[in-house]
Amino acid sequence: MKRIEKKELKVNMNITSIKTLGQLKKSGYKSKSIKDELRDNLIDKIKIKETVFTGVHGYEDTVIPELERAILSRHNINLLGLRGQAKTRLARLMLNLLDEYIPIVEGSEINDDPLSPISRYAVELIDKKEDKTPISWLHRNNRFAEKLATPDVTVADIIGDVDPIKAANLKLSYADDRVIHYGMIPRANRCIFVINELPDLQARIQVALFNILQEGDIQIRGFKLRLSLDMQFVFTANPEDYTNRGSIVTPLKDRIGSQILTHYPETIKIAKQITSQEAKLDQRQSESIFVPELAKDILEQIVFEARNSEFIDAKSGVSARLSITAFENLLSTAERRLIYSGDTKTSIRMSDFIGIIPAITGKIELVYEGEQEGAYNVALTLLGNAIKTLYPTFFPKIKKIEKQGAEAPYDNIISWFFNNNSDFDILDDVPESDYASILKKVKPLREFVLEHQPDVTKSEILFWKEFVLWSLVEFKKLSKYRYAEGTQFKDPYGNFISGLK
Q: Positive or negative CA dihedral for 95, 97, 100, 103?
């Protein structure tokens, strides 16, 4: 692999030293269309088993094979999926399949190929200077253009328009095609061009793309230019857009070779990989805050619960950015406690999950029932549902009603709260030593956790203890009261019986 890279580097260094058209011809260089570039380089990478779409997890057996087939077929591509499904990232990673450098006619606005020029400027320059025509080299990193489709986009923006200032400066008639100012698409000739949220583009603008995709000519203010633009188009769209904000006009869909459906992570394991990769953490956070694996599972499960929640609009989707920003909030909550307490190290606690609520409420679209509940309460419900979903995978199922006389696994813990009917509070900003002492009071907790999860490490045991308490609350075996400074746990019937006495 290293030998191939060194050889490629040497070749490119030799290529970029070529400065004229004559030298380019003598070198034996042969032009390729961008779609052939992508296809040939993909074939080479598949043969040596090199991963092209690095950093995209969960698509190995679904989206990526379809994307590779589309590239091999030389298709323009539409990536269709809900928000936060790495559509734009996939398009940007296609840059890795381009040649490192391509030659262009120096000074060309539309990246003219010296061996096959299409603009008037390049054709006239080559006719005049012939083999002495100067050329320059365009790196693949500069061969990506992107436009977010918004209702205010015009044909002039993406195709071009007549420039009266240019006409005046050059003293040209409006009948001269040199007065044309090229838009984004012609300027992205021989590049990957991405239009995000395609249905948001007005229908008349979509119509302007027909000939570019099929015939390769453009029309600007009465000028009909036959420009054989060499481009790889990648469009992205959200299924919701087809009905709510706009649609992709049928003739345009017909001209897009492959439509590929993206999706959200299918397992917590994949979701954790994405979150770990994308979360932007300060080095001090990574060094001073321990995150139990169970805490990561709960965080991702919250997002899974959101995607199936009756309170949240499923058509809108729940972006992967929710878990990323929630993870960042989770660590910041622990970091804030660390700063206030003066400790040097801390671990994530269950109570820290209250700190992720702003990340949740800002990224979910509520249906009517959700609006009635309120965004804050919906976020708490998602946390509770995540706990209830995960808990039975680690501990015995909590039954609503136990058989009379039968000993239940949770009797000792619940009895402790019943017999010690004093307030049991866990304050949010309490130092580590005090936090450990508080949980140590509930002696049956440690025995219970280690009995069913003997592999739990010393650094994780406190989180698991608190997890059991929160779970008992969700299954109505304990009650929990949340106030500004922290959380209070009680036996749900203790106060009632005390009142009777």
A: negative
Residue 239, Cβ neighbours under 10 Å: how many?
14
Using DSSP's 3-state secondary structure scheme, residue 353 falls into: helix
Out of 63-72, 154-163, 330-339, least confident range: 154-163
Q: How far apart are CA 423 and CA 426, in angstroms?
A: 10
> At 465, which CATH number?
1.10.10
The DSSP 8-state label assigned to residue 243 in this structure reads: H
Question: β-strand 289-290 against 223-225: which pairing, if any?
Answer: unpaired
pTM of the model: 0.85
- 389 and 428: one domain? no
* 457, 374 contact by CB (below 8 A): no
What's the total number of domains in the chain? 3
User: Does the residue 6 lie in any domain?
Assistant: no
Give domain status of residue 8, yes or no.
no
Half-sphere exposure of 62 (CA within 13 A, CB side): 13
Please report whether residue 400 resides in a domain: no
Alpha helices in 80-197 (DSSP H): 87-93, 120-129, 155-158, 164-170, 184-187
The answer on 136 and 39 residing in a single domain is yes
pLDDT in tens, 227-263: 788 899 999 998 875 544 568 888 888 889 999 999 9
Could you tell me if residue 217 is left (phi over 0), alpha (psi between -120 and 50 degrees) or otherwise beta? beta
- Same domain for 300 and 426, yes or no, is no
362: number of Cβ within 10 Å: 11
Q: Burial-class residue 103 by CB neighbours within 10 Å (0-12, 13-18, 19+).
A: buried
Query: In angstroms, what CA-CA distances link 219 with 60, 160, 186?
Result: 41, 9, 12
List, in sequence order, every residue forming a beta bridge with 474; answer none if it has no partner.
Answer: none
Gyration radius of the chain over CA positions: 31
Host H or E run for residue 471? helix 461-474
Q: What is the 3-state secondary structure (H, E, C) of 112-127?
A: CECCECCCHHHHHHHH
Within a domain: 253: yes
Residue 224 and residue 93 share a domain: yes
Q: Residue 290 corresponds to which tokens in the numbers above? A: 């321990």
Length of the chain: 501
Domain of 31, in residue numbers: 15-261
Q: Do 339 and 215 lie in a common domain?
A: no
Quote the pLDDT of residue 156: 79
Q: DSSP label at 105?
A: E
Residues 342, 452 within the same domain: no
CATH number at residue 322: 1.10.8.80
Which H or E run includes 181? Answer: strand 180-182
pLDDT given at position 251: 87
The residue from 261, 281, 310 where one domain ends is 261
Distances (CA, A) of 35 to 78, 378, 493: 15, 47, 71
